[in-house]
Amino acid sequence: METKSGIEWRVAEGRVPYPEALTAMEARVAAIQRGAAEELIWLLEHPPVYTAGTSADPAELIDPRFPVFATGRGGRYTYHGPGQRIGYAMLDLGRRNKDVRCYVHALEGWVIAALAELGISAFRAEGRIGIWTRDGGQEAKIGAIGVRVRRWVTMHGFAVNLDPNLNDFNGIVPCGLPEFPVTSAAALGKCITPATFDAALALAFPAFLDSLGGACGVQNQG
Prior knowledge:
By secondary structure, this protein is of the alpha+beta class. The protein has helices at 18-34, 100-117, 194-212, and strands spanning 2-4, 7-15, 40-45, 49-52, 68-70, 77-80, 84-90, 123-125, 128-135, 138-150, 153-161. A hairpin with a 2-residue loop joins β1 (2-4) and β2 (7-15). The longest helix has 19 residues, at 194-212.
């Protein structure tokens, strides 16, 4: 464990089962709310699982080949599994900017900046939350965003596809967008290890924190 800008960073060893991670995250958020714990960025990987956000449509669960868990985050169905970097952010927006939309915008920007450090051009897309890039000229999703805010402390975060089995996404309609494919760094010809991606996140972290305290520029999405 280490601390960056007064925030604890934790990198999990091995794969953390989703229910275990959710329980730990909820406990940490409660401790932050009580003033009994520092804010936390937690980087990890899950065994294969589908998670359902608050807007999940049962018709979009096509083939429940992996365990399915309901979660309090926003969004629809998402896949998590090996080869994907998960970042859970437990941050106190009460100390910064009490604006959830701006927080999501900043989270997207953080991941986009980290991918840029590694040679992947990613972007926001109008009306579509998440991290997008071009794969063979077509827009494709390389990262998902899903957050929950409880008494101004954030939960959940992002999932970025480094080198997952993309066929594992076929059991759902990812994020309810059947017209757009899912891609990964490996599919784009980039070999990025979790440690390499974590280092890129760390480089972009100060700018991310700065963006939480100022104007978020949501109107400039596109």
